[in-house]
Amino acid sequence: MSWLVLLTVGAMLELNGIQVASTAATPVMLLYYLTLFTGIGSFVAGLYGSLVLLWLRTFDADLRFISDYVSFLNLALLICLFGTGLAAWGLADSSFAIIRQHVSGVLLLNPSAIPSPLSAASVLLFCLFLIYLPFSRMMHFVGKYFFYHNIMWDDEMMKGNRQMENDIAAYLDYRPTWSAPHIRKGGSWGEQAGGGLPQEGEQK
User: Which of 23, 38, 56, 107 has the fewest Cβ atoms nearer than 10 Å?
Assistant: First the structure.
C-alpha cells in the first residue's frame, strides 16, 4: 500500500514537470529511494511469505488438514503477483519509471500501453487481484482489526459516566432464560458473576 502511495505521489510530481530520479533534489531523491525500498521490500517479503505458507500448507500435517483448494489458489495468485513484480523490477524496470509513467496515465484517465511485457503482466495480475480480493477470504485483513485486535486489545480504562461503563452495566442486568450447572435461571448476569445466586444443589 505504501509503495502504491509513493508511486502515485511520484507520478503526480512528474505530471507537474518534476522528474523523480536519483539525481533530483533531496526531497524528490528521498521519494525515489523510498519507492525503490518499499517496492522491492514488498515484492521480496510477499513472495517469501507466500512460498513459506505454500510449503507449510503442503507438508505440515496440521495445516494440510485444514487447507482447501481455495487456500492454494490464493497462494498461487499471490506468488504470481509478487513474483512478476519482482521479475519486472529486476529485468525491465529497475527504477520503477515504467510503472510510474503508467500511473501518470491512469491519473489522467489516459493510460498508455506498457512497453515491458513483464511490467504489463504485473499490472494485469494486480488488477485481477483487486477484482478478486473483495470476494475472497483474504478480505479478512480489513475486518480483522475491528473484529479481533480492537476487541482483544481494547483495554481502555473505564471511567465513571462513560458510554462503555453504561453499556456494560446494561449487559450485566440481562437475565438468561436458560440454565446450566454453572448458571442459575432467573438471576442477572451481574448476580451470576458476583456469586449472588446459589449454585445447583446449594441453599441460599
Answer: 23
